[in-house]
Amino acid sequence: MALQSEELELIGAVDKSPSLAGKKLTDVLGMAAGTFKISPTLSQAVQRRTGVVLLHATGSRLPQVTDQVLEALSHGMHVVSTCEELAFPYFHHPALAEKIDRAAQRAGTSVVGTGVNPGFVLDRLVATLGQVCGPIRRVRAVRTVDALKRRPALQRRVGAGLTEEEFFDLVDQDGLGHVGLVESAALCALGLGLDCDDFEEELVPVFAEEDIPAAGFTVKKGRVAGMHQVAVGLADEQERVRLELTIAVGADDPMDLIEIDADPPVRLQIPGGVAGDRATANLVVNAAPRVTSAQPGLLTVLELPAGR
Fold first, then answer.
1. Which residues pair with 79 in a beta bridge?
2. Model-level pTM?
3. Is 209 found in the same domain as 95?
4. Would you say residue 35 lies in a domain?
5. Mean pLDDT for the stretch of residues 179-190
6. N or C: at which end does the chain have fewer Cβ atoms within 10 angstroms?
């Protein structure tokens, strides 16, 4: 996507994997991507260039990627990351968020976490729709994804093929589920001006009603086909934000749905839903030119311009 953008010039790539470092990016992608090789370190890829934006996609949890973000900032780089917890890091990791914000301000650069979700469908798009409303009483947003149309790694990440016991064992180990739904709920509340004082989250399995062929395996009838995850934002124990995410192989009626209870009420449905992987890549690429002119520091997507 970066190669296709008229606003960006791709100048390097970094991967610490021995199987990729040192190879030409053109050979890895199978398309023309310049003559440079994939670098094992960020400093080698950037060298002495200035005004560089790092398109960062290595992990979902902020503690896993904080050092990588700080390294980029030490080189005077802006960072646009797919790290889900970075979309609103103040919820789970306020100390790390403050550390990144201080480093970015010292560097005079900006950091933002974005993607299809968190970063767009269940938060930024909801906040945008809310601009046509008066005082908002409640919002409900639903995203249903057929994992058969997504990469095999996602099918495994939502528990496809597991027994119910195996599913909950992995949930207890933080080995399953979508990272970032609570972050989306917090962003959604912030963007709609809802003062939520508590957030709750629930994750349950979705079961296959028949045998379903998946990527290299079959989900047997009665086994886990995927997951249903809910994040709720409360104000004075009253539900104000409700986000529902279902990702399962063979999920019926994939779509994105947003309902805002306000004056006037707003209801938006996207049949088929926004394409997750491609949309995330485009969101990252399209955010890159925007962060270079943003205020220094750690940002949320709500602080980016609405248009491209």
1. 54, 111
2. 0.94
3. no
4. yes
5. 96
6. C
